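Researcher: Please predict.
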Amino acid sequence: MANMQAPPENAVILFDGTDLTNWHQKDGSPANWTIDEEGAMTVSKGSIISDETFDDAYVHVEFRCPDMPEAEGQAKGNSGVYLQGRYEIQVLDSYGWEVPGLGDCGGLYNQYAPLVNACKPPMQWQTYEIVFRAPRFDESGEMLEDARMTVLQNGKVVQNNVELDGPTGGQLDEDVGDPGPLLLQDHGNPVSYRNVWLVHLPPAGSDQYDPR
């Protein structure tokens, strides 16, 4: 397919357009979304969850909202991308809204509205580039920092290193100290996804200076 960003060599490929062997449903059964001849999967019969789990990660997701001209608000091309299955980046047809809100596309659901409306019209492919930083804990297990997220939608920054106030709702669990999967939400609308991958990130860089 044209206009897809190629993953780097160290990426974990979650969906390459061929099958859903890397995904399952909440009850553990195989994912059963439909895959078309162009290699896009479309929401059907429940949310799907990646077998791969992660802490800090760079995540790439491409999505396409359906054209639903008679629908309004949260009924208009609704889905969601959940980091670690706990923190939702809203997927919605919010094209044309001058001031996007907490529930619009690019928002961290009910916590942070997107900085700008970066949406393309429905039926066009869009991209999320996500830098996710997992919560931090001390040696006793007490939380020092909540999760953080930076999100680019179609090349525009819509979330700038925001600190989340816990899971956003609809999460898989409350185990915020554990690695978690990527969840793509079934909200009853035929949203499509393609070219989904992630790169695991180290928790911190080296503290050594090498003059070479």
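Model: DSSP finds no helices and 15 strands in the chain.
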